[in-house]
Amino acid sequence: MRILLTGGCGFIGSAVIRHVINSTSHTILNIDAMTYAASASTVESVAANERYHFSKTDITDSAALDHLFESFRPHAVMHLAAESHVDRSIDGPSVFIQTNVVGTYTLLEATRKYWLTLDKIDRETFKFHHISTDEVFGALHPNDPPFTETTAYDPRSPYSASKAASDHLVRAWYHTYGLPTFVTNTTNNYGPWHFPEKLIPLVTLNAIEEKELPVYGTGENVRDWLFVEDHAEALVKAIEHGKAGETYAIGARQPRTNLHVVKTICTILDELSPSANGLRERLIRFVSDRPGHDFRYEIDPSHAERELQWKAHHNFETGIRRTVQWYLQNRTWWETIRNTRYTGHRLGTTK
User: Fold this and answer.
1) Is 119 a catalytic site residue?
2) Which of 138, 225, 252, 279 could form a disulfide with 312 if both were Cys (CB 3.0 to 4.6 A apart)?
3) Is-catalytic flag, 91?
């Protein structure tokens, strides 16, 4: 299968590419605009493989997309390119609308134009896989059941609203034009190569450097954590076996409070890289909460597990240990980012 994948130098996209090249026979074209959170290093281990191809292209550039579709002739599209940081969406929502909404529309139209040129058999087997988030469903209260594929949409941030809009566009192109699209919604991912603005890498790097560990509010907000390599495997199974018009909610059944996550990282680092200054929990600082901070996300992945014959391999304890070890062993990568692109400063205060 020839797969055209957007956002392949980002955190989740690069994990998908590594999985495709290392564990399947598929060929992949990685389209990435190489914005601040993208890194060529994430795919360096597979870049020389003859089944890997790359194009620095913005998904809002319709002419460039038309050229790539015509030259690569994909059997499937995996759409991961997105602005994804809630705090940044609070500070500057415009780029989220441009990339997540306009970009998705542009990609859908380029795909549809190409799809209509295919013969009947190729049209019927073609797939457009849109990768989305559980944040489109809003927030859960403590005793609410987890999100499923039928949960009503209730986005609360500019980021989640832009992703909800893109989900609706993808489904509209299926119902209106017959383009064989489907959507996967996932919960919080973590693992190697995660850009240092998100909770787990930010706390890990601050703790390594013995800087303050900021925790929003009381730290009781709950997220359902999925190791990125498990998610990558699920996404590849989805593009291989997913059905047009479907939705698959992908999760690991690993809900943890933010405070538990931070304390776990401290404990692992105290074991792997002890500090002469004492236990790292001393660095935790509770800070003013993020505006509109959703209390809890959690996914029931039963449908995806059954239909895709997939289940997450890592529990949170094994996944977070692998993650912390990776950051300890790859200081050059994240130190370069901290020195040039993101220093660790707080975003999303609305002030």
Assistant:
1) no
2) 252
3) no
